[in-house]
Write a structure and sequence with these properties.
Chains A, B, C, D: This is Four-helix bundle copper-binding protein. Chains A, B, C, D: It comes from Superficieibacter electus. Chains A, B, C, D: InterPro entries: Csp_YhjQ, YHJQ-like. Chains A, B, C, D: It holds the Pfam family Csp. Chain A is mainly alpha-helical and 108 residues long. The first copy, chain A, has a single domain, classed as Up-down Bundle (Substrate Binding Domain Of Dnak, Chain:A, Domain 2). The first copy, chain A, has four helices and no strands. In chain A, helix 1 packs antiparallel against helix 4. The longest helix of chain A has 26 residues. Chain A is elongated and about 45 Å long. Chain A starts with a helix and ends with a helix. Chains in contact: A-B, A-C, A-D, B-C, B-D, C-D. The interface between A and B is medium-sized, with 19 and 19 residues.
Chain lengths: 108, 108, 108, 108
């Protein structure tokens, strides 16, 4: 696996970890009703990030297709997280954007 | 979730179970060297089937995108499995085709 | 895979589908703050159910260990869901109990 | 999440990536029949590593139970990989041992 692939796998798993943590943290907030879109997207983002990382690691013929979805969901999750001021949401937004960029390079 | 969605979720998980079983069975055969393409595809097929089922169950905005990949990998796995005479490969080919058809209806 | 194993795989995936649906439905309710424990447990329950089903399908040496965790999380999720009157929670509670029982038979 | 947890999540995902890569590489070798135990264990190891990382990130009440299985499978995978001279197996053995040690600290 070349350098871009290794970096993208690392960022996908980092993003999965941050999204799971963000979803769990949103559920603990005083007003989780404000965070439902964030939770929903973070759970899905963690799922597609893990599968994309797995497909890249397996050197699958289909990794570009999973990375393409990863770009879309990471961007949507970053946009939603960026609206919230909590530290976990702000950090999640940043990592989602990094992951989206790395996946975009993979599908180019 | 409407009727087609429920049926597709069920078929995706059925396909995941059969693909995992097929991969494990191929590894136990006398000549696993003949089965490497089958194992590789079955592992990936199980992975995308599980994610597509999860995304449909979550009523995700992205389920059509995962189902589209599911169609491609299920078809490729069915084609490869169909070449082999073992019972597990023949059954796997059939279930993969059913799953591909169900996913195709979801993306229509 | 003998009959009990096949039944358990089917129930684990059925439970995963119901838990994902229940979590997504809880997030759409008027007062999601009441449902946070339910959402948290349902997400984890879906995850361990999928892994246990995968390990049984793979005929893994470790399926009893994953099934044991599945029993614990399914029971906890059933207990939490049973507290809520919505249709999705009541159905989820029932399916979680069925899955816990099936996993219990596998570890016996 | 405290420092040990973050480190363990990182190592679990690193191990998942290495195990997937090792399984795919074993399937490409001249004599995959020699590598079937390795492939089987690596696929399972990647699965439990991903779930353990997810459970730790979610701050789940059940992460010690998944980490305990992770210790067992990582050790078994490391032992099997260590028997083979290929670079991917040797690196996989090392990362599996690191991951087992990190998970062991989590369950202590």
């Amino acid at each position: 696996m070349h350098q871009d692939g290794l970096k993208c796998i690392e960022l996908c798993y980092k993003c999965a970890a941050m999204c799971d943590f963000c979803a769990a943290s949103c559920l603990k907030e005083d007003n989780p009703a404000r965070m439902t879109d964030c939770i929903r997207l973070a759970v899905q983002c963690a799922g597609i990030c893990r599968l994309s990382a797995q497909f890249m690691s397996l050197d699958s013929d289909y990794f570009k297709q999973t990375c393409r979805i990863c770009v879309d969901i990471c961007k949507a999750c970053a946009e939603e997280c960026a609206k919230h001021q909590s530290d976990h949401c702000q950090r999640c937004a940043k990592i989602c954007r990094n992951c989206a960029n790395a996946c975009l390079r993979m599908v180019a």
